[in-house]
Each structure stands twice: as C-alpha cells, then as structure tokens.
Predict the structure.
Amino acid sequence: MCGIAGFVLLDQTAERARVQAMCGQIVHRGPDDEGVYVDRGCGIGMRRLSIIDLSTGHQPMSNEDGTVWIVFNGEIYEYKELRADLMARGHRFQTASDTETLIHLYEEEGVEGLKRLRGMFSFAIWDARRERLMLARDRFGKKPLYYAVLPGGIYFGSELSCLREAGVPLEPDAEALRLYFQFSYIPDPLSGFRAIRRLQAGTWLTYERGEVRQGRYWTQPTPSAQAAPGMTHAETAAKVREKFDESVRIRMIADVPLGAFLSGGIDSGSVVASMALQSPEPIKTFSIGFEESAFNELPYAKMVAEKYKTEHHEIVVRPDSIDIIRKFARHFGEPFADSSAIPTYIVSEFAARYVKVALSGDGGDELFGGYTSLQKVKRLARLDGVPQIARLAMSWASSRMPYSAYGKNFLHMLGRRSGLDRYFAFNYAPFHMRSKLLRPDWMLPAESGFLAQALPDCVLPDDAGTLSQVMYFEATANLIGDMLVKVDRMSMAASLEVRCPLLDHELAELAATIPHAWKVVDGQGKKILLDAVGDRLPAGVLNRPKMGFGVPLVDWFRTSLREVLWDSLTSEKFMARGFVSPEFLRTLLEEHDAGRRDNSRWLFTLLVLALWFEDIEQGVPAVVGVG
C-alpha cells in the first residue's frame, strides 16, 4: 500500500526535488519507504507502506531492460497466478511483489490486462519507448487517483495535496460545489478544483506527447429485478457463501500483522466470522463506542468477539476527543461532510497501534440491499399511480407551508413524479431547506433528470425500475464518492491499509444477478446474505435494529464543537463567499442551539466547507465565481 505522485512535462526536464516534494505531502500513506524516478520530462514517485515482499518491493520498479517503470498503490490478490502465467511467457522477475506483475502484464496486454486484475489499486506506468504515461484505477475506486491536464503537461497524485504542492491552479469548481450542497460530498469525476479531476473507478487514461485517451475496462453490473432462469434460492445462497469466504481468504494474505474492524453489525461480523473460521490464530478485532447509548455498538461487537474468541480491542470516544476536526478537513483536501469519517479515523488510528492491515465490512448494504432507504422506496412505490394533477397539488401545498411546519418536506417528496425523484427528495438535503439557505446560483434542480445528466454513469434509465435505479446509485455515486473516500483517507491518515471483502468484483457480479425479492424481504434488507452466512452470527446481532456508523453531532454542536461551529459559519470571510443567506443560516444555528430541531447534518456540511476555504484561502478569491 502506497501513495503515488508524479507528472509528465512536454517541454521541460523533470526535477527530482519536485517529485519528492509532491510525495512529501503523503508520507502518512507510506511511512516505510520512498522512491523517485525521473526520465526526460517524466517524474514519478511513491511513499510505501510495506505489506507484501517487505525486503525487495521497493518502488519505482522497472521491467528487465528499464524501459517501463511503475509506481503502484494497492494490492493484487491473485498476483501469484498472474506471475506464473507471465513467467511462462518468458518474463524474468526480480522481486516477489505484486507490483512487478503489473509491469509485465502491461508489456503483454496493455490496457486489456486490467480486466485480469482482482484487487484494489491505482497506479502509473511510464513507457519510455512510447513516451506514454498510463494511469489506472480499480473497479470500485477503493484507491484514489487525482490528475490535472494542463497546457504544459499532466500531473497526478493519490491525494489533492500532491497536486497543490506541484502548483496546479486551485480555483474552486462551482459545478462540484453545487453537487456538494446536494450530497455533502463531491461525486466522481469532479474534485473541489476546476483544474483537477478524479480518474473514475474502472477506467484508465493515457497521456502520450500531449494527447489524452481514456477508456473503461469495467462497469458495475445493473442489479437484477428478476431471478435468472434455473436459479434457485438455496443454490444462490450457497454460491454467495462460497464466494464471500473466498473474498475474505484472499484478503488475508499479508507479511505483516492483520486484523479487522468490528462494528457490531451484520457485515463486519460476517467478515470476522469468516476470518476466524479460516485462520489458525485468533483474529485481532477493533471496535469503537460512544458514551451516548444511541451511537454505541460495543455490546453487539463484543458478542461476535466472544463467539469467535478474537483478540478484541475497544475504544470509547468522548466529546473531548473531537479535536481532530481540522485535521479531518485537511486530509480530504476538498469538501467532504460524512461525519462518520471521524470515528473511522479514530478506530483506524487505534488499530494501527497493533496491525498494518484491517478488513472491513464495507459494501454489504450496497450489494445486497441493506439500506433503509430501499425499504422506503418499496413502500412508496404505490404512489407511482397518483395522477399528475394530485402531485402538482401536493408540491404547491408544500411550497406554501411555513419552513418550520412539520411535514413540509414529506409533502414535497410525495409530490415528486417518479420513485427516483422521491428517493433524492427524502434521502438528501431537503429541497425547501436548500432553497431558503442557498443563494439561487447554488441551487440544483429538484428533479432526478438533472442528476442523470450531471452523473450519467450513476443513474440508470427509468425502464430499469426504481429499486434498481436506487441500488445502482448507492453502489456508484455514494459508495465510490462517499463511503470509500471516507475509509481510504481516514485509514491512510493513520497509515493503515483497509481491505473490503464484500467489494470483491466477482462477488459484486454475483450479487447483481440476485433478484430484489431475495434481498429485501418484509422490510428486511440483505436477506440473501443472511441466508448465506447468518448462521455464523449471534442472535443478538441478527435481531438488532440497523444502526448507522455515526457520531452524536447533534450534542457536540451544542457543547464541545459549538464555538468552532459558530465562529466559522458566522465569520465575515464565510459570508463573503456568497453561498448562503446569512439570516437563514443564523436561524438554523439558533434552532439547533435551542434544541428545537436537529440541523447537525446541514451545519456540518457548511462547517466543512468553511474549513476547506480557510485551508486554501492563500490565492483563492473571496467570492467563488459562478460558471
């Protein structure tokens, strides 16, 4: 696991010191080793967190004659099989690392070789013979890769700080910020800066003498509404169990201590159970809890730990532990307001005292229909037949109700024309709240049709069906832009590698063939996953209500974080940005302070934005141009 960075310049010679400076911004991603290679206008570098082949895995790494060089971030889980095939084709290996496999695979198959990889990765290959830089990212985008194509060349890096260090222009991207106000994160391929983009999951990019080419080698499969012919429930559950255990097993390969996050939920509990059943040694597990009982999952995590006799470690977060808020904002490098990143960082830092690799349960909700929003989508499906005139009446009535009236946003949601519109209305920032809080230039349309244009790779056509549309959006936009960004940045901030067995692409392809009726049953999600591996979990974990991995911001914003919240959001600098109505923002703050309404989610979205501007205010105009 590493952090990578570099550039290719058209009319300049690469300077080693410049690459080193870019890599110096991501020492936390790789504290064990560093390396730089320069060739004419190309400079590539890395910071390494040593996991596999500790003694000979130094990067950058080259082929036999030094004409192809690579910097690689991630893990290829079946690299030994690829290695044997490449050796049979005549390639000579100098190391035992998965990195070297990628070099020879590129030589043999070019971008087509990406289809053979099973793992998480982002990497850059410099082909000196062709003067070509190739960038690639894994199917789910677990490992990040930012890039900027400028008139003088191309820059890339694992984090935005690498490109900032290289001097890439830092003008904020107005389109990205509009989407941030809707989702509280910035979806791929955008970043917070106009000049910088994310390489999308499952894609590659080549830069050859100033010419850019891009392509896609994998697309997330569309969730199926119907069972495949001849597919039985029992056989499907058995296949899920087999593929799940295989996905766990190949992610337990490491030359360093390894453990698992254990939240007390079904997904992480299932991963720990599978690890324990396949390991001769006790599994190290790590859990986080809160003094506030509504957010504390420690009792459920302990049930799994005791059942499998793990080497269990717990940490309790108290309000005075939240002095990491500014560090949190800096590590993302752009607006990102999923507050569950705070406990993710704390548990990662805690686990890193004992292990260098941790498995997690991320992905189960997206692949197997675990989110409560899906059950709500199903319940509201009966509204599809409501006449258009009735919908217009509901929308009109909601717009005439006072902002503080309960039911206003619900009525607005009922008035939406499609199930996907209703999903966006009840699952994200309420339309009426946004319309009063944001200046008109920063408002997005309420209809899903706009988002289908803005995020074409994340929204399926209407004929796919609402449940398929929602599951696909969760597995593309939300998973890649929110969940996996959170896990990567916060774990790597603590120099910890996190692996996600449930996000194995072969398991995902199997899950997509399973009909919705086997996933969401009588209001319960992930039913087929429970049928496959639920017998391994304690009854108390199986029967508990679903709990999100969150933090008690509602209380902290009235106590330990009140001062930073008010100071940041009422400052002249933030108001001068021109995003919000000062009067309505003060209303939100006062409502929350007095306990009349929980506005913590939206206030956190604005707080993170304010902290981001504080971090980049050097050279950033006081008002962001709308364009």
User: Anything to note?
Assistant: The chain has four domains: 2-216, 233-370+474-542, 373-469, 553-616. The radius of gyration is 24 Å. Residues 400 and 408 are 9 Å apart (CA to CA). DSSP finds 27 helices and 17 strands in the chain.
